[in-house]
């Protein structure tokens, strides 16, 4: 998984394709979408129009809800794959119709029951065995659900867990567990949805480096070892968010950002994975 991704949450269908094309032209090579975002088709159009070999782009999508059976979940996930990468060409094998794939397919939420989780996992594992999914992971799963899936996940553990992560939501109870088991971590909402743009600690660090607050937040994630997924539909912001490799936050600055949580508690925009 590339260290920096481009998120498409809340990107309108009439803007998604151009935004993803802009991101790809600026060097982003991880594109993150989901069934729930309603823009997988538009992301797929951008991948095809970009002229960049499919093998050079890492694509993540997510299944939003269980469909009641392994077969129905399989069909739902396969439909997403076809929207994103239907395959091209007329023969068999690589590049043939029906050979499209996604690099990472995640279970987007905790789902109502263990039976639902098992059935979705089984569908994704079938797609992985068929070569239509390269890696299987989860989003917003805590220790209990990750331990539960030892009983049905083969292989275990999930290869990635996508979480809300930024200085105001550090998920400290979960991250050591993920590190111990080698689970890759992606960070959604790394810019805190602009909620903390006026924070004095963040602003001071940005001034020190001559950078913007969003750039500091993305850099913070990178230095934590999380793969941030900033999103924007403004070309200048997409470019700004990618320009984060020419500076480094000091240990003191990282510690200051670690300390911004009020009363030492996570303050998520979406959720803390405590399930």
Concise structural overview:
The chain has helices at residues 13-25, 40-49, 70-84, 114-129, 143-148, 175-180, 200-209, 213-224, 235-242, 251-258; strands at residues 6-7, 30-32, 58-63, 102-107, 133-139, 160-164, 184-188, 227-228.
In DSSP terms, counting alpha (H) and pi (I) runs of 4 or more, how many helices? 10
The average pLDDT score comes to 95
**Fraction in beta strands:** 5-15%
The parts where pLDDT drops under 50 for at least 5 residues are 89-95
Kindly state the percentage of residues in helix: 25-40%
Largest sheet: 8 strands, parallel
Structural shape: globular
| Topology, number of strands | 8
Global structural class: alpha/beta
Query: Which sequence of SSEs, written as H and E, runs from N to C?
Result: EHEHEHEHEHEHEHHEHH
Q: Which strands sit side by side, in order, in the main sheet?
A: 1-2-3-4-5-6-7-8
Distance between the termini: 25 Å
Rg from Cα? 19 Å
């Amino acid at each position: 998984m590339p260290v920096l991704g481009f998120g498409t949450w809340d990107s309108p269908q009439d803007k998604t394709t151009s935004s993803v094309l802009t991101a790809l032209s600026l060097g982003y090579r991880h594109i993150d979408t989901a069934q729930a975002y309603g823009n997988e088709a538009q992301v797929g159009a951008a991948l095809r129009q970009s002229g960049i070999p499919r093998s050079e782009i890492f694509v993540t999508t997510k299944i939003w809800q269980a469909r009641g059976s392994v077969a129905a979940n399989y069909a739902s996930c396969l439909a997403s794959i076809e929207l994103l990468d239907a395959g091209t060409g007329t023969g068999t094998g690589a590049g043939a119709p029906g050979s499209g794939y996604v690099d990472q397919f995640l279970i987007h939420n905790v789902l109502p029951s263990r039976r639902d989780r098992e059935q979705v996992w089984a569908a994704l594992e079938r797609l992985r065995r068929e070569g239509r999914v390269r890696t299987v992971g989860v989003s917003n799963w805590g220790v209990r659900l990750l331990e539960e899936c030892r009983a049905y996940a083969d292989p275990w553990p999930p290869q990635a867990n996508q979480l809300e992560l930024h200085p105001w939501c550090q998920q400290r109870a979960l991250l050591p567990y993920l590190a111990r088991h080698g689970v890759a971590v992606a960070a959604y909402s790394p810019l805190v949805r602009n909620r903390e743009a006026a924070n004095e600690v963040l602003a001071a660090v940005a001034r020190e480096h001559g950078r913007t607050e969003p750039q500091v937040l993305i850099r913070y994630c990178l230095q934590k070892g999380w793969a941030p997924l900033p999103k924007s539909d403004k070309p200048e912001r997409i470019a700004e968010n990618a320009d984060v490799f020419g500076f480094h936050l000091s240990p003191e600055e990282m510690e200051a950002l670690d300390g911004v949580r009020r009363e030492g508690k996570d303050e998520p925009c979406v959720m803390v994975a405590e399930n």
